[in-house]
């Protein structure tokens, strides 16, 4: 009996010793899977054929540094954490806000950009919405994407205006242009992007946003080896000026 128990213990400890970590799995499979929503310009956008944006370029750089193939996996803001927990991808990237609720369920990389919540409005209304108080008025319709921090901010701060929810983030600025909503709750990089891309839109509060937050990348809970690898690569990108170059090229 003791001999059998000893054999079982050896087998168990051997299995633990040789358990493959995520980084080892990525290297063995020669592929890193990146989950991204593809609906948040200028960080991640699926154009019908390919993904593009700042975080897409960072993902390409990470894959190149590790020496593996890059696979993009489509996800949604609502399912971002559950898909990560279900091992549908190795890392989530694409304009993801660092916040406590996410930190409790996943590891979050070092920050790479400071930003804040601000509105996107029609150009004709640029002087009308210059504060949260201006936005939160009866009769004002506020558009947000379901499952993201924009919706969370609206739920916490919009009491008098009407909140209109959209499944896809890309649909909200279009709704502003069409007059379906008056204001889109957005973030400074996205607001600046749309104001530059469409003459019908404006971003009146990018210089004085309603909040301050940081962006980072999500990694499965407890995977410190993967977290350390991503943070190391990000530090190297900053040191070499690669981050600044990609920001100039993509965040306009």
Automatic annotation (TrEMBL):
InterPro entries: SBP_3_CS, Solute-binding_3/MltF_N. Residues 31-252 form the Solute-binding protein family 3/N-terminal domain. One of its GO terms (molecular function) is prephenate dehydratase activity. GO terms for cellular component: cell envelope. It is an enzyme of class 4 (lyase). Its EC number is 4.2.1.51, 4.2.1.91. Pfam families: SBP_bac_3. The keyword Transcription regulation does not apply. It comes from the Bacteria. PANTHER family: AMINO-ACID-BINDING PROTEIN YXEM-RELATED, MEMBRANE-BOUND LYTIC MUREIN TRANSGLYCOSYLASE F. Belongs to the bacterial solute-binding protein 3 family. This is Cyclohexadienyl dehydratase.
């Amino acid at each position: 009996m003791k001999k059998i128990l000893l054999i079982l213990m050896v087998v168990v400890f051997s299995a633990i010793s040789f358990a493959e970590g995520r980084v080892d799995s990525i290297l063995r499979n020669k592929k890193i899977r990146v989950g991204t929503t593809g609906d948040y310009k200028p960080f991640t956008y699926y154009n019908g054929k390919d993904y593009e944006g700042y975080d897409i370029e960072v993902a390409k750089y990470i894959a190149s540094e590790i020496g593996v193939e890059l696979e993009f996996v489509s996800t949604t803001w609502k399912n971002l954490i559950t898909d990560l927990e279900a091992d549908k991808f190795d890392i989530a990237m694409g304009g993801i806000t660092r916040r406590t609720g996410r930190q409790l369920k996943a590891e979050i990389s070092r920050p790479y950009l400071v930003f804040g919540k601000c509105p996107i409005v029609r150009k004709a209304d640029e002087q009308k919405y210059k504060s949260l108080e201006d936005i939160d008025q009866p009769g004002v319709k506020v558009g947000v994407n379901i499952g993201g921090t924009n919706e969370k901010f609206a739920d916490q701060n919009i009491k008098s205006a009407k909140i209109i929810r959209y499944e896809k983030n890309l649909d909200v600025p279009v709704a502003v242009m069409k007059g379906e909503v008056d204001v889109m709750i957005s973030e400074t990089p996205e607001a600046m992007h749309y104001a530059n891309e469409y003459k019908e839109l404006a971003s009146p509060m990018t210089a004085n946003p309603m909040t301050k937050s940081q962006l980072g990348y999500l990694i499965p809970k407890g995977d410190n080896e993967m977290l350390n690898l991503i943070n190391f690569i990000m530090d190297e990108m900053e040191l070499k000026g690669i981050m600044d170059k990609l920001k100039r090229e993509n965040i306009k």
